[in-house]
Amino acid sequence: MLRHVFQRLLMTVPVMFGVLLIGFLLMQVVPTDPAIVRAGPTASAELVQEIRRELGLDQPLYVQFGIYLWRLLQGDLGVSIINNVAVTQELGGTIGPTLELMFASLFWSIPIGIALGTIAAYWRGSVLDRFVTALSVAGGSVPVFFLGLMLIWVVGFQWQWLPFTGRGGPLWTVEGWQSIALPALTLGGVFIAPVARMTRTAVLEVLGAEHVRTARAKGLTERAVVLHHALRNALIPVVTLIGLQIGFLLGGAVVTETVFSWPGVGRLAVGAILSSDFPMAQGTIIVLSLGFILVNLVVDVLYVALDPRMRGG
Amino acid sequence: MKKTLGAALLSLAATVPVADALAQAAPRDTLVVLREYDADRYDPARSTARSAGEVIYMMSDTLVSLDFDQKTLKPGLAESWTVSEDGKLYTFKLRRDVTFCDGKKMTAADVVYSINRWVAPETRSPVKWRAGPIKEVRATDDYTVEYELTEPFGELLYQLSLFFASIVDKDTVEKLGANFGVQGFNGTGPYCWQSWTPRQDLVLTKHPNYNWGPPVYQNRSPQIGKVIWRIIPEANTRLAALQTGQGDITQYIPPFAVAQLQRVPTVKVSTQPNYFWDFFLGFKVDKPVVSDPVIRQAVNMAVNRDALVKAVFFGAADPADAYVNPNTLGYDAEAAKLMPQFDLEAAKKLLDEAGWKPGADGIREKDGQRASFNVYGIQSAEWRRMTEAMQADLRRVGIDLRIQLWDATVAWGKLATQEFDSFVMSYPYISATDGFALYFDGANRPTPNRMNWNDEATNKLLATAKTALSAEERAKAIAEVQQIATRNNVWFPIAREKLYVAAAQRVEGARAHGIYGAGLYKGLDLRLTR
């Protein structure tokens, strides 16, 4: 098991290098001159040139990338070229809120997704099944920003039940819980559909398996058969899917955080990219990529934990 | 199974609290100002953005202040001032009761330091020209400042009312270095810096000693304990927040929402007729096609400005029937009369007579050259619609406008090149001379004079408009500049943005100001009723 985890960790090194390289090159492809951004629209050409030199932007690309990597190895992500704040400092303040949002979204959407999928599979072909399937299709089709705006409009604006601008406090406070509710409902809302669909398919498959028939033949209750024998075995592909979807959830968080002014990494990434703040944008790319890689690593480990057959391999 | 489903539904229900318990009004005695974007920093000498200026006005003061008419200068940190006969020496008598937020007394030395810092080469202020041709700024005693120029600069007092000329504390600047305005600030304004989370919140607290506010307000001291400047980039979220009490006041209202907001009983909208922020299209006059004055005149005649502005701004802007706002200091009504009127047939006739004949595809040609030119600008819904409307109108007279809008991060770089034939942009100004001296002076090519307009008469007149001793002479010179620009159709003026400030029900005393785009200025009359 440990060897497996170690191997997977080693594999993340070239992946991260690729991410860093692509992230760096993408920033170069953008035809923006950060020096002009910093100097302002009325600045003279001399001033722009001076700032470019100061930022090291007059160096060849490979030199810039080399310097960037060297600093990165020392834990230095540089400073924002917009406001001079250390990238690590600003990132540090945003990772927590993003993790909170992810946690809150998954907290309610995974149980509901699994429950809906199981119900649909158990009563296959019924009205309930069709309803859940329709709900899944609708949930999978609704863009995150639209769901967010609708929730703001109905719950926040018309009913005035919940706030929708920013983070009220840590998750364990009343203000924090209130302020995270709508963003979490939004982000989790689009997560339910794929989980429900995958659970339905997996449970259906397992319900027809021999060990389930055996369990029934032994006289176990339907509850025990479904929960302990069918659902547990069906969870392996569901966990894989959840892992993959969490990656996409990070993408959804970018939109959700912008719509709800949630002070997370996603919103920081949008702000950094829009303001051509290269170091900050690269910092957010690193964090989001690292998040994606870590989630996949955890899924791999969970996969092995859930399916003892994998341990041998 | 039923229990599982029930538990899931309960967990969902737990996120939906009861309505009454969760009214989301901002805390009492805290004003939440909603805005669209943050500034890069809050250093008056280094920041040029409106989003920086609107906060700096609250955190610091200038020697003189500007009334709501945007013309009348009033005392600020200087309670009086005199100008020498040769117009080169300004003597400011400072108030003696002013302190910085840290309690330190403000003296003439701080004024000298702040102005010198603004114009110092190492500060690299992109707007240091606004300080005028300084010879020396000196303190003759603790409360007297002499501001000596190498030549007269009639605009000086107006320029000194802008936030770039804010007086800051030397010790704090030197202590924070490059992080001044990022990690802290120490000014003499009605509110003091408490904290800044970039792209999120900037928190100011009441300056307890402050009672030297400009006499343009009923109150000379702040009426609110805390001001939070909160960034909400998404327009719908921002407006919904204002209406539900999650924010108190904003000037960042998309044009389509102004009329709707004015009908909302819980929102009070104030406006400012003396708001100088204009949209225009400028021609790079040394580029093929647009170098022909006939083409520029035809463009001015062929675009239905009124219809365009109505369609794009929904009444939240006025059609620009002159190069500057009629309420601006130095506005020339005669120049406005020279503006070509919308007349499609006359535009066609003009082009015909000049030899621009329709080609096979309807686009005119002359000497083998097509009447086709590109326009660069910043990508936004408004600019997209405006340029498309212009494109459609110009097509009717046989002129092809090729639109190339760039993302805001790219646009300023692109607008500094010589790649384009014309460009669109918007800008704030405080007087006709302020705007024209920046954009029409030949010395300012290629940026900010992006038209490459280099006319000897214009340059001389602009020099006169800036340096002449008599107000009449200055007014005459800037009037002539306006006439030259209008006669040559260097621009196609498009729209004059209106300033709206929308305030929630609990906010009293909200009155739009608009100096350099800042809707609230010092905000001294703002108070909260609950």
TrEMBL record, chain A:
Cellular compartment(s): Cell membrane
Any Gene Ontology biological process: transmembrane transport
InterPro entries linked to this entry: BPD_transp_1_N, MetI-like, MetI-like_sf
Main location: membrane
Keyword Thylakoid applies: no
Domain ABC transmembrane type-1: 95-303
Keyword Lyase: no
Alphabetized Pfam families for the sequence: BPD_transp_1, BPD_transp_1_N
Annotated Gene Ontology cellular component terms: plasma membrane
Membrane-topology descriptor: Multi-pass membrane protein
Stretches that traverse the bilayer: 9-30, 101-123, 135-156, 176-196, 234-255, 285-306
Similarity section: Belongs to the binding-protein-dependent transport system permease family.
Cited PANTHER family: DIPEPTIDE TRANSPORT SYSTEM PERMEASE PROTEIN DPPB-RELATED
The protein's name in its UniProt record: Peptide ABC transporter
Taxonomic lineage: Bacteria, Pseudomonadati, Pseudomonadota, Alphaproteobacteria, Acetobacterales
Automatic annotation (TrEMBL), chain B:
GO biological process assignments: peptide transport
Subcellular location: Periplasm
Residue ranges occupied by any Solute-binding protein family domain in the UniProt entry: 73-433
One Pfam family linked to the record: SBP_bac_5
Predominant place of localization: periplasm
GO MF entries: peptide transmembrane transporter activity
Signal peptide span: 1-25
Keywords carried by this UniProt record: Signal, Transport
Name of the protein in its database record: Peptide ABC transporter substrate-binding protein
Source organism per UniProt: Teichococcus rhizosphaerae
